[in-house]
Amino acid sequence: MGEAHILIIGRSPTVILDAVAILRGKGFRADATNQFDTVLTDYDTAAVDVVVFGGMVPPHAKQHLRDAIAGVNDHVRFVQGLAGIAGLIAAQVEGVTSRAGTGGDAAYDPATRTVRLTLREPARVVVEAWWLTSFTPPEPKSASTRVADTLLGAGEHAVALPAEVPDRASFVTVSVGPAVHAFVVGAIPEAVTGMAPTRLPAVRAVATHGE
User: Do residues 137 and 88 both lie within one domain?
Assistant: First the structure.
């Protein structure tokens, strides 16, 4: 569904611009903004297919935007970004826009740090891990690794995450053919998620319009 129109509402200029670049490279019409107060006037929200919210969008602003956009758009889907990682955000968008077939299912087993697959037919499977390496606002840093990229036959399969993937602020995405799934491996520390947006350092304004 590469023609879908995506709007990313976040705070970190680098993260949201990188996510837009990735999505545009995959054929999406994607834009991003960190100007929370002018989203409704800057964009035609009635024509947006997916709205992604970053974790540093203040709760009151997020709720106001959700209500306003849903009031004029009955097909929009809202996605809560798992972390300030551009590739992960793009994968989440692919997950809600992909035309998932019936080729298989994916799940993450936290006890064994293993991705478990049930394939009803052969499929290309790509497993990628993502994690934050720095939480310093407004530009978090991250790393990633491709754990698997292979054609698997029908049946049960297990893919273990390597030891380099940490147990906090980490995530895994699994592509099974056209379907994309995203899972939390290790939660982001509460000290980070609880940061008050009003106390964060200022950021440069970002509001793309198909540039």
Answer: no
91 and 140 assigned to the same domain? no
Burial 118-140 (b: 16+ CB within 10 A, else e): ebeeebebbbbbbbbeebebbeb
- Tracing tokens 């509460």 back to the chain, one arrives at 190
Joined together, the tokens standing for residue 29 give 């019409």
The model's pLDDT over 155-184, given as tens digits with 9 standing for 90+, comes to 999 999 999 999 999 999 999 988 999 999
Q: If we measure between CA atoms, which residue out of 79, 56, 76 comes closest to residue 68?
A: 76
- Which ranges of the chain have pLDDT less than 70? 1-2, 99-102, 193-200
Q: What contacts 53, CB < 8 A, 6 or more positions away?
A: 9, 10, 62, 65, 78, 79, 80, 81
- Round to whole Å and give the CA distance between 156 and 177: 15
Residue 37, domain CATH: 3.40.50.2300
Report pLDDT for 1. Answer: 44
Backbone angles phi, psi at 176, to 5 degrees: -120, 100
Residue 170's domain comprises: 100-190
What is the model's pLDDT at position 198?
57
> Are residue 130 and residue 160 in the same domain, yes or no?
yes
